[in-house]
Amino acid sequence: MADGKDERRPAGELEASVMAALWTAGAPQTPGQVQRSLGTDLARTTVTTILTRLHDKGVVERHRQGRGYAYVPVQDAQGLTAKRMHTELDRDSDRETVLARFVAQLSPDDERVLRTLLESGEQPSAS
Q1: What is the pTM of this model?
Q2: Which residue from 4, 50, 58, 78 puts its CA 20 to 30 A from 85's CA?
């Protein structure tokens, strides 16, 4: 019988939690600071591993702080979502079909927002 400590969380869930902690902090954070802000039983080494993976993916930058690093997000949450959408689009050679199916599945409200953005040629402001 497995106890709660043996259950592994998906890497994506841990990465999302770490990113949320970084966005909330609004300033560069060391692995120890991120660990404390998560308020979980994650080891500092686990947090460091997650931050290193996020750095390798280009999602966070790191700056030398003492003998270690402090990490800061490269983009806000919405920018990161947009980057993931582009990554998924780039994985398929038939971009036109992918985009057509994406648009066909939009809600009427999302379609209206997209239409307005395309017609205005403007970028939405960062919140």
Answers
A1: 0.70
A2: 50
